[in-house]
# Entry
Amino acid sequence: MKIGIIGAGASGIMAAIQIKRANKNIQIDLFDINKSIGKKILASGNGRCNISNTNLSSKNYIGENKTFCQYALEKFSFKKFEEFCKSIGLLLDIKDTNKVYPLSNEAKSVVSLLQSQVNHLNINVIYETRIEKVSKENKKFYLKSKTKKFFNYDKVLISSGLSAAPQLNSTQDALIIAKTFGHTINLTYPSLVGLCMNSNYHHKLAGFKKEVKLTLLINTKIKDEKQGDLLFTKYGVSGFAVLDISQKASYYLSLKKHVSIDINFFPNLSKQELDKKIKILIHSNENEKLSTLLGGLISNKLPLVLLQECNLDLNIKAKYIYEEEINSIINKLLAWRVTIIDTQGFKHSEVSGGGIKTSEINNTTYESKKCQNLYFTGEAIDIVGYRGGYNLHFAWASGYTCAKAMA
Ligand SMILES: Cc1cc2nc3c(=O)[nH]c(=O)nc-3n(C[C@H](O)[C@H](O)[C@H](O)COP(=O)(O)OP(=O)(O)OC[C@H]3O[C@@H](n4cnc5c(N)ncnc54)[C@H](O)[C@@H]3O)c2cc1C
# Structure
């Protein structure tokens, strides 16, 4: 049997290794645009590679039908993944947060151990080759790059990922090929990405970072809440809490909905506690400017913008502030609404949301329901994980599950 695998990322590599381990007589051609395998794995987790998570369930994913991924997550559980890692000589560092990293703390060691398995199993990797067309005639598949044709495949797996980080040679080819076989594509959108704001002040706050609670509002209705770091940037906001909320924000932006975020700068204080702290500041030096005193509460980048947004005199002395003005400062600090107008786009996103409609793929085999012996895995499918190793784990698990069916 001859199998073609398009894309040597996490899911394609896993599938190739598992197929060969199940049956070494199967001939595999593994294609990738890049000069080496696992380019995105190398870039993951800032080069540290948050490779998996011990707490796996479809609850950690988003998609039209997120339960689609449950079967693969159970079949290739964290325990199974750990056994696989041991089998290639990769030791893991399991954090208290359930996130999993290579013990070496380097993505490089993950890729080099996978490469060693690929070599050991005689998987034929065809580098620097972008497959642009897949066709099927008389039960055999034909693959075509710009300059070459590849013949007579009994089965084909498309594991070529999606649009995030195009600088790493990501493509939308999986979707283009899937469409030629009659598949439906759900809207794709950048996910785990910084958000662009519409304001006349965010650039002044660039570099200001704080733990906050974010409330995502779609057409003013609450859709999500996350607590964690927020970082103001020249374009808007980033940081872990923003990345976490970005998945839904980006999806609704692509549907042209009104997206806004309420920032609570003091998620661990009640309104009364914050009021008390501000009054202590005011009474500490009533002849000082309020903007200077507020620097004792929060980064000194914020007070002037805060007073401006509350329509207060920027030079007002503490002693001249009224009770209702203190109240409006507190309300602003606890629910500072910003309008989100865009994301930073695929170039700066970690993953792509959307993709091939899950109802047209068999979730126990990853075979297309539109074309026998054609398979899809990984990011190309309309399943996207939260931050925390979930995206790589879905790539491993879908590659593994598909390989069991293909072999
Ligand atoms: C900067 C960054 C950091 C990340 N960090 C993490 C993290 O820490 N933890 C986590 O879980 N996830 C992380 N991710 C997401 C994770 O890397 C991906 O979700 C995962 O790699 C997807 O695996 P895949 O096999 O579906 O696709 P990919 O890994 O994207 O592999 C697809 C491969 O196919 C190749 N290809 C594309 N089109 C063609 C074609 N037509 N012909 C031949 N080859 C083709 C591509 O070049 C690529 O090598 C990160 C992503 C980025 C960009």
About this structure: The longest helix spans residues 390-406. The CA atoms of residues 142 and 249 lie 40 Å apart. The longest strand covers residues 221-232.
